[in-house]
Every structure is written in structure tokens, then in C-alpha cells.
Amino acid sequence: MTDQDTAAITDTADAPDALWPAVDEIWARLEATRKHPGTEGLLLRVLKLSEEVGEVAEAIIGTTGQNPRKGVTHTWEDVQAELCDVVITALVALRTLTPEAREVFEGHLDRVTRRSRGA
Predict the structure, then answer these.
(1) Cα separation of 63 and 53, whole Å?
(2) Whole-prediction pTM
(3) Organism's domain of life (predicted)?
């Protein structure tokens, strides 16, 4: 996830239903430059999530100063941004898996929401 990808979300954040058009835009740009086709490309896109989650961990460690050699290197705003990158990367990976990413996600979110309410 690059700053340009995050800017695509930010630029459209005020528009209704801006999330999914932004995900589609990022997906299309990545697809146009994909170096690995088929299953390999899909797996690499999903593995990108691990990298992004690692950046969350790095930011938390940097926020808390847990690395004595580096000290405090990040802010909680950095952690927030990294968490957003995880979400965006996951949605783009889902879009890579299916063109019905929005419907799949919203259906799953509905099931999880109902389950969390004890329904």
C-alpha cells in the first residue's frame, strides 16, 4: 500500500459509497501492472497482508519505544494509518479473488454483526 493508494481513498472519502469505487480503482491499477498472473498473482496479493500487518506491529513497537536501540519512532496516528492500509489491502485482495467483493464483504459483515448481537 502506497501513499498514493491511501490518497485515492482520502480524495473520495466525502463522496457517498466512496470505498468500493476506490477499491476498484486501486485493484485496476494493480492489475494493469501485475507481474505474476493467475494463482501466483492472487497468492502474492494475499501475502501482501502479512507485510501490512507487520507494519502495524512495527508502528506499535515504535510508538511504545519497545526497541531500546531505536526508541520512540512512531505515533498512534501512524498505527491508525497502518491499520487502514491493512483494511485497504484486504479489500483489494478480496476484489482480486472476486468481482463481487462488495457483496461478499457486506454479506459477511452482516452475518458477523448478527452473530455478535447473539442473533
Answers:
(1) 15
(2) 0.82
(3) Bacteria
